[in-house]
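Exercise: predict the structure of this protein bound to cytidine-5'-triphosphate.
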Amino acid sequence: MSTPENSSLAGRTVLVGVCGGIAAYKCAGVVSKLRQAGADVHVIMTDAARKFVSPLTFAAVSGNDVHMEMFDAGTAWQVAHITLVRKSELFLILNATANTLAKLAHGIADNLLTTCVLATRNPILVAHAMNTAMLEAEPTQQNLSTLAARGVEFVMPAAGFLACGEFGDGRLADEEDIVRAATRILERGASMTDERVLITAGPTREFLDPARFLSNPSTGRMGYALADEARRRGAAVTLVSGPTEIRTPSDVRFVRVVSAREMHAAVLEHLPESSLFIGAAAVADFRPAVEATAKAKKRDADLHVDLAPNPDVIADVAQRRPPGCLVVGFAAETDDLETNAREKLARKKLDCIVVNRIGRNGGAFASTENEVRMFWPGGEQDVPRASKADVAATILDRIAALRRNG
Ligand code: CTP
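Solution:
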């Protein structure tokens, strides 16, 4: 363990939620380690956690008051729980039970811990512990997947002797592993503070007339996941998005566009102040040459549409980029992944390209998961199937490595 002065935890604020379960006593060790490394640690305990360990223990090891009640008499509780969340940089949930995981997965906020989780926009790290059968139960596994898809990270339970007398998976991970994972997230949280990231996401719509358009099945999820992850790492993010069903992300500059030409104009406007461009949008290559101002009637249709090419947003970005700006593209391919990707990388003068394989009916587009390959002039990397949040993190790690290696 490093000393407080040189630790990357020094001066960082961590909110720790402690759930009920036999391993609650071990959580005091984690809190103590975080504090020894210089972190300012604030603990929230559930009612069940208090049945196992006294709040006094956590007050002593954290050096701060322990929070438990939503409705503490005489305190400005409404403000208090939001303040706790705002001033912290990481939410660490220790000894998470199957019950708390279920609540978190479904957005239930019925105690101070779950309310604060719902209110946080910071990274969430969960170390869960429970009986093996409960861990393997279908609902628990689904809840874990739901949370992972939302970007929650986990320190997986270890195998060992459990309080129920069984031997199996479900033991709270070791103190050191939890502290290491928390440190990694906090270090990452500051890793892009110098970047100004411009991201495109979603499809574009190219209208034939006020009632009809040409488009594609992109959901925008990958671009939004990248925007979220870049923001979490401290970057200033501008997201230029075509029409999507996704909620507008917080803490990013958000520019809504519809057509490829609007996306092109918005991107070029924000490009001069950008240090990284990621083109995750599925930009329509063509638009109807003429957009009718009135709806064409079926009986008058001549079943023929003339198309005009759209501007290539990313190719123009690569040409006009400010000095030092990295340009990362995406490609969706059905065949010859590597050949097509390398050709696009060179033709569009990109620093890196991320390739999705698309199946029939645009399968890869609609999924909450993704599996990609990245290519850059000196190498390539396979990113195995994972949530789009995890894939976004791996892509940004790779971009950071490309930046470091010049
Ligand atoms: N792209 C863009 N503007 C366009 C078309 C594509 O900025 N008009 C960007 C996408 O955002 C993506 C990359 O270019 O980052 C590759 O997209 P893709 O559609 O695979 O490339 P195309 O040039 O359209 O190649 P093709 O359709 O021939 O495969």
